[in-house]
Design a protein that fits this description.
about 10% helix
Length: about 280
């Protein structure tokens, strides 16, 4: 056997070993997606428009995506959230209507741990959140609307339990999101948006912290696993409160949640899946 033949055999053995090692250590990270509808009550006060509180209904559509991170899938998970919300309220007399619409987006990571109790896990992390919305009051005057916008760094966490109710697999999860610091938009008391349009841009952006900007989004949900697709039910509540430039805004909501959730796994049809491949879920 000459040297060239020996070299070819050694190279083939080496490539086969590497490929086998990659096959054994392959990690799959399914995407957990959730689509929910929430409905409940809202309570809105904005002294830029009126000192009166408006109470009515709240609706929201939300999407959530969870996946284990690629760099350390067992310990770190990511979460993307997107939502559209609408509120409508009346004053105590019932002769004025107030509307509020909002778009929100956030992305973050959490470090997770398996807790000593069977089926219990928890995580702590951070996210960056963006909110943009507007309050409209149907009355005459120069200031019928109040714009809302913020970009905040949030502290977040969760506590989850995976178990069974009878024979039905269930995942119960509680998650709060608490903004810590960032920036938000607020005009001065009585300042017209027409004045801003003309070029009066000073004093519109403010550093947000718990002294002038406090918000809390929290949810308590249960995923009922009937099969590959699960039914999500639960509660969602939010607090949004700002105090700056002699104006105060308070928006409180409480809502029931219903939706569907499930895990999806993308596979390459050209690549053979190893029997030893490890599947690491972001939530279960």
């Amino acid at each position: 056997m000459n040297r060239i033949t020996i070299f070819i055999l050694l190279a083939a053995i080496s490539i086969s070993s590497v490929g086998h090692a990659q096959e054994v250590t392959e990690i799959l990270r399914p995407v957990n997606s959730v689509y929910t509808l929430e409905a409940g009550s809202s309570h809105v006060t904005d002294t830029y428009l009126s000192p009166i509180k408006y109470t009515g209904w709240h609706l929201g559509l939300k999407y959530e995506r969870n996946q284990a991170m690629k760099f350390s899938p067992e310990n770190w998970v990511m979460q993307l959230r997107f939502g559209m919300e609408a509120d409508h309220g009346n004053n105590i007399v019932g002769n004025r209507d107030l509307w509020y619409g909002e778009l929100n987006f956030s992305w973050g990571m959490s470090r997770r741990w398996k807790l000593p109790i069977d089926g219990l896990s928890g995580g702590v992390g951070f996210s960056t959140g963006l909110k943009a919305g507007c309050i409209y009051l149907d009355r005459g005057g120069n200031n019928p609307a109040s714009a809302k916008a913020s970009l905040m760094v949030n502290a977040t966490g969760y506590l989850a339990w995976n178990g069974k109710i009878g024979r039905l697999p269930v995942t119960v999860r509680y998650q709060p999101v608490l903004p810590v610091a960032g920036a938000f938009f607020a005009p001065d008391y009585g300042e017209l948006y027409y004045e801003i349009y003309l070029g009066n841009h000073s004093g519109l952006a403010h550093f947000g912290w718990w002294g002038n900007y406090f918000a809390l989004d929290q949810s308590l949900t249960a995923d009922l696993h009937f099969g590959s697709t699960s039914l999500r039910i639960g509660y969602s509540g939010s607090i949004y409160s700002t105090k700056v430039n002699h104006t105060v805004t308070n928006i409180f909501t409480h809502a029931a949640v219903i939706g569907i959730s499930g895990e999806w796994l993308s596979l390459n049809p050209r690549k053979k899946l190893s029997k030893e491949a490890e599947i690491i879920s972001a939530t279960y």
